[in-house]
Design a protein that fits this description.
With 575 residues, the chain is mainly alpha-helical. Helix content is 64%, strand content 4%. The chain has a four-stranded parallel β-sheet, with helices on both faces. The chain has a two-stranded antiparallel sheet with strand order 1-2. Helix 2 crosses helix 15. The longest helix has 33 residues. The protein is globular. The N and C termini lie far apart (55 Å). The model has no long low-confidence stretch (mean pLDDT 85).
């Protein structure tokens, strides 16, 4: 295998060289588990998008297998996700199902192009306020589309526009079905309990099987997949090429770009989650190429757009997945259900699927990021709020375009405001002495990294080399910010993630020398909570003094021996 070819090989090929029976058993268990989890989600996403439930299952089978087989991530799971629900329903409303298939294939071609041209890291050019605004807005829209089935409201048609949809739901409030509402609330409660107290138990599986059994045995008057859509056909669909027209291509260019961008963002974010949980490093360009191929093939089987699914990926890792084989087994598990158990799927109540999607909407919304965004500058808050508003009330494609324009303007503004021309005075020279590294001894228990220039979205991947060598670092890491001229929300998030990973590895992070704009934003965002206020100091001189204190207190042989004794005492007390 040549070194030139290796960067373009899928993880499945690279990891099969030392594959054994033990890894296969782990992959088999994980694959079957995540396959069962994916079944209700695939159907729910399809129904929310305005297509039949089997379209979601076909998508999960085809794209799930291809993304795992061809992708650059070790444990990533691909398939339909909530991010596409709003876009898909809008495309179908304007261009029909053939328009959706054409758009998906166009988006797939764009993703392949991004991967081939080495643009796999392009996700870094989306600033955090824009991404949070997208996810908040999409979550609100998904939740609003599930209110009808969650409460069992009798409505012939659910409007596509948010405000018209909410007005129609209010008008139909008197048609509420109490059996459906109670089932939905119970389903939601079960998933919350599983998430909080039994994370290894997939709440979606429990709810799907439990609700189906309850409706079947008790003969509850609740609408099911069968009553609305009929039976799920057994076997795979026939391959069919969608009707392609030049005029449709032109009209779908903008939606296809949106689908491609959303697919790239979510798949690469999911791959990062996979890396952190499985202690691996994904290949972004190979991953995007796999996502592209999967989206080109999916419409041929009547499937939806697909991307990496964060929740299913996390379930896959927790279930013990070792290689991409687990993702392929997840797809084969779904295929087995379609081939041998499709008639049973018709009894799944729509109220239970609505509860599952309500949970998905909450989890994907990044709501914990909202308080962090509100602590940032007025410009960051404005970008987040405008992106959120446009996503909900206008059009996601338009929101993506406006969000990126605003992000570019923010970038220019931050860089221009931090560019200064000042006279060097004696006071300036004297004040700078405490920041000089020359002539200072850096002890073996500490290391210093510096950020030079603006640390804005688009530059935060510069921590990659640092994180790659995490296991070789000493117990104390000093991040010198003296030459960092500006920082934004995405940069703050990158330093926060670095602090969390260092802390998880038993190390300490110190920040020193932040200039006016970064220091103001760090304080405004209450960043001290992540590293401790005493670990944010004015200069490298102070940082080295603080490092000595931290070492003696937490990392020296005496401190480690003291921790060991305390741990033994705790064990004795518990016994």
């Amino acid at each position: 295998m040549t070194s030139a070819l290796q960067p373009w090989l899928p993880k499945s090929v690279l990891l099969l060289r030392d594959y054994d029976r033990h890894k296969f058993v782990s992959d088999l268990i994980a694959g079957v588990t995540v396959g069962l989890v994916a079944l209700p989600l695939a159907m729910a996403f399809a129904i929310a998008s305005g297509v039949s439930p089997q379209a979601g299952i076909y998508c999960a089978i085809v794209t799930g297998f291809l993304i795992s087989a061809l992708g650059g991530s070790k444990t990533q799971i691909g398939g339909p996700t909530g991010a596409f629900v709003v876009v898909v329903s809008g495309i179908i409303a304007k261009h029909g199902i053939d328009g959706l298939f054409t758009c998906t294939m166009m988006a797939g071609a764009l993703l392949v192009l991004l991967g081939v041209t080495g643009m796999g890291s392009m996700v870094k050019y989306f600033p955090r306020p824009v991404i949070v605004g997208f996810t908040n807005g999409i979550a609100i829209l998904i939740a609003s589309t599930q209110i009808r089935d969650f409460f069992g409201l009798r409505m012939d048609h659910l409007p596509g526009d948010f405000f018209h949809r909410m007005r129609a739901l209010v008008q139909a409030a008197n048609t509420i079905s109490w059996p459906a509402t109670i089932l939905s609330l119970l389903s939601l409660a079960i998933m919350i309990v599983c998430l909080k107290y039994a994370k290894r138990v997939p709440g979606a599986i429990v709810v799907t099987f439990g609700a189906t059994v309850a409706v079947t045995i008790l003969h509850l008057p609740i609408e099911t997949i069968g009553s609305r859509f009929g039976e799920i056909p057994s076997g795979l669909p026939t391959i069919a090429l969608p009707n392609l027209h030049y005029d449709v291509f032109r009209q779908l260019l903008s939606p296809a770009f949106t689908v491609a961008m959303l697919g790239a963002i979510e798949s690469l974010m999911s791959a990062v989650v996979s890396d952190r949980m499985s202690k691996d490093k994904h290949n972004p360009n190979v991953e995007l190429m796999a996502q592209g191929v999967a989206n080109i093939v999916s419409p041929l089987f009547g499937g939806l757009p697909a991307t990496g699914a964060i929740a299913r990926t996390a379930t896959n890792v927790r279930a013990g997945a070792k290689t991409p084989i687990a993702g392929m087994i997840h797809a084969l598990t779904l295929l087995a259900i379609v081939l041998f158990a499709a008639p049973l799927v018709k009894n799944v109540p729509l109220a239970a699927l609505a509860a599952i999607l309500m949970m998905v909407a909450y989890n994907m919304g990044d709501w914990e990021e909202v308080p962090e965004i509100l602590k940032l500058t007025a410009a960051d808050v404005a970008v987040w709020l405008l992106t959120l508003t446009l996503t909900v009330v206008a059009d996601l494609t338009f929101a993506v375009e406006v969000g990126m324009v605003l992000a570019a303007l923010m970038f220019i503004r931050k860089v221009s405001r931090t560019t200064t021309v000042t006279r060097v005075t004696r006071d300036y020279v004297e004040d700078s002495r405490v920041h000089i590294l020359q002539g200072r001894d850096i002890p073996e228990y500490a290391t210093v990294f510096r950020i030079h220039g603006p640390f804005l979205f688009g530059a935060t991947d510069k921590f990659a080399e640092l994180l790659d060598t995490l296991d070789t670092l000493p117990p104390i890491v000093i991040l010198r910010l003296r030459n960092m001229t500006a920082i934004d929300a995405t940069g703050l998030g990158a330093i926060r993630d670095l602090a969390d990973q260092l802390h998880d590895s038993g190390r300490s992070l110190l920040l020193c020398g932040a200039r006016e704009q970064p220091a103001k934003l760090l304080h405004q965002a209450e960043f001290e909570r992540h590293v401790g206020a005493e670990n944010v100091v004015p200069s490298i001189e102070d940082a080295l003094e603080r490092a000595a204190e931290v070492y003696q207190r937490y990392h020296s042989p005496a401190a480690l021996a003291r921790k060991t004794e305390e741990h033994k005492d705790d064990l004795v007390a518990k016994s």
